[in-house]
Amino acid sequence: MPFPARLDNVLTDEPLMTAAIATAIVEAQAAFPSSLAPTQAAFSIVAVDESTDPPLFSHGGLRHTEMHFSASLLKVAAMYAAYQLRQSANNFASSVADATADDLFNHMSASFDPLIAPAVPLISNNPQITQAMKVPKYRSVFAAVPLVDGGFALAFDAAFQNNMRQMIVPSDNNAASACIQALGYSWINGVLASAGFFDPATNTGIWLAGTFTEAFPRVRVASVNDGPVAQATTTSDLANFYAHMFRHTLVDAGSSDEMLALLDDAAAGPDSSWMVRAGIAPADLSFGVTGTKIGLGPLKPENGGFDVASEGTIVQHLATGRKFIVVWQNCRDDGNSLAACALTVNRAINIFLGVP
Predict the structure, then answer these.
(1) Strand-strand pairing, 11-13 and 56-62
(2) H-helix or E-strand spanning residue 1
(3) What is the Cα 173 distance to its own chain's centre?
(4) CA nearest 243: which of 314, 188, 194?
(5) pLDDT (tens digit per residue) in 203-229
(6) Residue 63 region, left (φ>0) first, then alpha (ψ -120 to 50), else beta?
(7) Which end of the chain is more exposed for a tag (fewer CB within 10 A), N or C?
(8) Do 56 and 12 contact (CB within 8 A), yes or no?
(9) Strand 42-49 relative to strand 56-62: parallel, antiparallel, unpaired?
(10) pLDDT tens for residues 103-156?
């Protein structure tokens, strides 16, 4: 079976954090009275307690169960799907004695594709989506490395690895398109559903069925801010996704560390967190960013046509060392709105920690 087992929701409700966010939003609205961001953006903030093994994740949120278009933020879903495919493919390779790499890939396709192609009814029932758009192109994703005792280990192909890095760190759309085309819609979204990050019964959770370049037709789900969209999530589902990465249970420890390293590099690259940028960051910014992925994209003309920003970020409070997972979306892309969202997060964390 190529798909992963369902992962638990490791977030626990924390009323103190939810109350802190509500108070912070009132303060942000007072500081930026012309901005609609405090009343329209969705927030999840998760306090991480690393004194236990595994860590505990205390979640507070506002509009955190709403689906919103969040653009390039959803590239993290393709990243995750790639690492899950690597694990599943290596598990398969270890049980098959193939004479050649071509034999291995042919057997893998014959075993995996009949399970992957129909895995997501929204995709498999769409007449515009061909079989080739649904299933992975294994030879494009992997290089087969011969083992001394026979057989193969599968590593990411150099071109695919580079595209995945470019997809996350500078958030290149062409690189993202290449990754998504190589992985296939049904694999990406089948993994998300199987792991529990997307609920096919309600069409809520993490959804990625667009290539950012129109290479494949889009497959859409309903969103609050932009009607039917191809890239959407709830903040709470993405926060749970990040929490599993943090606790090394998103695929496995090695894969989680590699994904976190990409987010670390993104935080130091051209697409750094909105919250720490000059002109946006609060004057008393109380945290540093250890990993991030941001999103930015336009709503449809009938929904205003303006760009909305989003991000999923891991931060560390400077005074206490406490770490937090922060996910927010549906923030209008203007200075005051972004500053209001940054202020909301900064104040919510401080209020929660009891820092004046």
Answers:
(1) parallel
(2) none
(3) 15
(4) 314
(5) 999 999 999 999 999 999 999 999 999
(6) left
(7) C
(8) yes
(9) antiparallel
(10) 999 999 999 999 999 999 999 999 999 999 999 999 999 999 998 888 899 999
Per-domain residue ranges of the chain:
11-71+237-353, 77-202
**Quick one: average pLDDT of 86-113?**
92
Amino acid at 121: P
The span from the CA of 261 to the CA of 250, in Å, is 14
Convert 285-309 to b/e letters by CB count within 10 Å (16 or more is b). bbbebbbbbbbbbebeeeeeeeebb
Contact 82, 183 (CB under 8 A): yes
User: What values do phi and psi take at 289, rounded to 5?
Assistant: -105, 130
- What is the structure's pLDDT at 55? 97
Contact at 8 Å (CB) between 182 and 162?
no
Spatial contact of 78 and 183, defined as CB atoms under 8 Å apart: yes
Residues in the chain: 356
Beta-bridge mates of residue 293: 312
What is the SS3 assignment for 265?
Answer: helix
Alpha-carbon distances, residue 42 vs 113, 166, 328 (angstroms): 37, 27, 5
Q: Tens of pLDDT along 250-283? A: 999 999 999 999 999 999 999 999 999 999 999 9
- 283's CB contacts (< 8 A; 6+ apart) are none
d(CA 82, CA 86): 6
- Helices assigned H by DSSP within the chain: 15-31, 37-40, 75-94, 101-116, 121-124, 131-134, 138-141, 158-168, 173-183, 185-194, 235-246, 253-267, 335-353
Q: Please report which helix (H) or strand (E) contains residue 128, including its range.
A: none
CA nearest 50: which of 327, 323, 272, 316? 323
* Identity of the residue numbered 327: V
How far is residue 327's CA from residue 274's CA, in Å, rounded to a whole number? 12
Q: How high is the pLDDT of residue 96?
A: 80
